[in-house]
Amino acid sequence: SQTIHQWPATLVQPVGSPLSLECTVEGTSNPNLYWYRQAAGRGLQLLFYSVGIGQISSEVPQNLSASRPQDRQFILSSKKLLLSDSGFYLCAWSAGRFGLDSPLHFGNGTRLTVT
Amino acid sequence: DQQVKQNSPSLSVQEGRISILNCDYTNSMFDYFLWYKKYPAEGPTFLISISSIKDKNEDGRFTVFLNKSAKHLSLHIVPSQPGDSAVYFCAASVEWWTGKLIFGQGTTLQVKP
């Protein structure tokens, strides 16, 4: 069966420090991968998605970037964190052809607090 | 611009009764809708979905209704159980094959024993 691993679960970082969140998927090949963020009191917002190695689409302008160095690995990064980057970050995957029988599957998320 | 809205931040129901969670949307191009359930410290888990060509989809105790003319989506849970207590998110997509979803803010459901 497919599983998704996301770490760390919680992270406290000072303003201006770098960020690296990692996500890996097991049990499937060539998944679509996604990074979502939930800010306080808001719904989940799509940040990046990838349909293949090295292919990254950014949904909103921001202080973050994403990379996909391997088929089942997705990394979210920042060179210098801002206070507004605080939130709950979720990695997700779907089968190569997302559809009614293949919804998004989420990891357990990373709670990031920028101080 | 909030394209998907869940106007009730919380809902409390008695065990065994019906829970009705509501969701409104503004984009008439949405063609695929989903409900996710989230427990604390966990990621959301998929619950049920519906295509815009249908007005109802049922899976066990969970039924989703879609009213396209009103741009309204609802999730019915019958009967409600204490284990259903969680945050429920509705989500919608225009390009459903991409997995790019737009989520509502969530509704916290509490089912009292």
Describe this structure in words.
The complex is a heterodimer of chains A (115) and B (113). Chain A has no helices and 11 strands. With 115 residues, chain A is mainly beta. In chain A, strands 2, 4, 5, 6, 9, 10 and 11 form a 7-stranded mixed sheet that branches. In chain A, strands 1-3-8-7 form a 4-stranded antiparallel sheet, with no helix packed on it. In chain A, a hairpin with a 2-residue loop joins β7 and β8. The N and C termini of chain A lie far apart (38 Å). With 113 residues, chain B is mainly beta. In chain B, 0% of the residues lie in helices and 53% in strands. Chain B has no helices and 11 strands. Chain B starts with a strand and ends with a strand. The mean pLDDT of chain B is 93. At the A-B interface, β4, β5, β9 and β10 of A face β4, β5 and β10 of B.
**Unreliable spans of chain A:** none
Q: Percentage of helical residues of chain B?
A: under 10%
Largest interface: A-B, 27 and 27 residues
Helix content range of chain A: under 10%
Beta-strand portion of chain A reads over 45%
Distance between the termini of chain A: 38 Å
Cα distance spanning the termini of chain B: 38 Å
* Tally of DSSP helical segments of chain A: 0
Radius of gyration of chain B over all CA atoms, rounded: 13 Å
**Overall radius of gyration of chain A:** 14 Å
Mean of residue pLDDT values of chain B: 93
Poorly predicted regions of chain B: none
State the order of secondary-structure elements of chain B, H for helix, E for strand.
Answer: EEEEEEEEEEE
- Helical run tally of chain B: 0
Judging from the principal axes of the Cα atoms, what is the shape of chain B?
globular
What class, by secondary structure content of chain B?
mainly beta
The sequence of SSEs of chain A as H and E is EEEEEEEEEEE
* DSSP strand content of chain B: over 45%
